[in-house]
Specification:
By secondary structure, the protein is mostly beta strands. It has a single domain, classed as Immunoglobulin-like (Sandwich), CATH 2.60.40. Helices cover 0% and strands 47% of the residues. A five-stranded mixed β-sheet has the order 1-2-7-6-5, with no helix packed on it. A four-stranded antiparallel β-sheet has the order 3-4-9-8, with no helix packed on it. The protein is elongated and about 85 Å long. The relative contact order is 0.26.
């Protein structure tokens, strides 16, 4: 899942970040690991039933007085796509980024909630 390519004379790693998906009450929660990312570079979109998460970890600034001898850390472009197969209340979607983890809470719509069916006698 890792590709490297040249862009503007700079290596860029394109990475699909690790994720956990779980249910919490009436929500579906996606927890996506994106260390080193600044909040302003994160983009979360829901188009139809496709949730797309993208972010960018910028290049580490090194003082001009230092000459790099060896580098393994390069800028990273994170991208992950999830197909949501449950009806979602689009007005109740929330996202939070803290300590390198993005949490996206997708509230299930009323139509997607479990429903008790009464039995007639």
């Amino acid at each position: 899942m890792l590709e490297k390519f040249k862009k503007n004379q700079e290596q860029l790693a394109v990475v699909a970040p690790y994720a956990n998906i779980y249910e919490q009450g009436k929500d579906i929660v996606l927890s996506v690991e994106m260390p080193g990312v600044e909040k302003g570079t994160i983009d979360v979109n829901l188009n139809g039933n496709l949730l797309v998460i993208q972010a960018r970890k910028m290049k580490e600034e090194i003082s001009k007085e230092y000459k790099p001898v060896y580098q393994e850390r390069f800028p990273v472009a994170y991208e992950r796509r999830f197909e949501i197969n449950t009806e979602i209340d689009r007005d109740a979607i929330e996202a939070e980024y803290k300590n390198g983890i993005l949490k996206v809470s997708l509230a299930k719509s009323e139509a997607a909630q479990p429903q008790k069916i009464a039995i007639k006698t």
